[in-house]
Design brief:
By secondary structure, the chain is mainly α. The chain folds into 2 domains: about 70 residues; about 90 residues, no CATH class. The chain has 7 helices and no strands. The longest helix is centred in the first third of the chain and has 61 residues. The mean pLDDT is about 80.
Length: about 180
């Protein structure tokens, strides 16, 4: 390489005066444009494909969510039409449960309690789905199981509250004697 460098340094002026012809520059421009256009076109197609895929996945997830929400609402409406007795019991126990749950919220408690309540709710949703699929005339067994589940859910919450009140007796007294300003 040393001899090449010496040659270039010695003949530097000759290299500066020699200019390639227009055909050479045209050929170089043509090759550069072809090389640039291919990756750009490929990137454009890949971006479009990714956008379409993202839209399809998002639409699918949204559709599944909406379908499940619609099925749950439809199941509740169907349960109410099958058994007005169950509908009344559900409203009654839900109101009682909500009162007790508000009391529970005033105590420090383990988050596993909420998880257990969510599991009971899931089991009740499954029972309601079973109620819709059961043959006519045999709904009474599932209705009784649902009512027992409502009662059990309320009893569990009452036991938890009793235990929390025994552990934190001052919490209940403080809440009763608070005065709002």
């Amino acid at each position: 390489m040393d001899r090449l460098e010496e040659f270039i340094k010695a003949n530097r002026e000759d290299f500066d005066h020699a200019v390639p012809g227009l055909k050479v520059w045209a050929h170089l421009d043509k090759n550069l444009e072809q090389r640039r256009s291919r990756p750009l076109a490929l990137r454009t197609y890949l971006r479009a494909a990714a956008a379409v895929l993202l839209l399809l996945v998002t639409g699918g997830i949204g559709g599944l969510y909406l379908a499940s929400t619609f099925q749950q609402k439809q199941a509740i409406a169907s349960v109410e039409s099958i058994s007005p007795e169950l509908s009344e019991a559900a409203k009654y126990y839900d109101a009682l449960f909500e009162q007790k749950y508000q009391q529970l919220a005033s105590y420090p408690h383990d988050e596993s309690i909420d998880a257990d309540i969510a599991q009971i709710d899931q089991a009740m949703t499954e029972l309601k789905q079973d109620l819709l699929n059961v043959p006519k005339g045999s709904e009474e067994q599932i209705i009784q199981n649902l009512i027992k589940t409502y009662q059990l859910k309320l009893q569990i919450l009452e036991r938890i509250l009793d235990q929390l009140e025994s552990v934190h007796p001052t919490q209940e007294k403080t809440n009763k004697h608070e005065i709002g300003i």
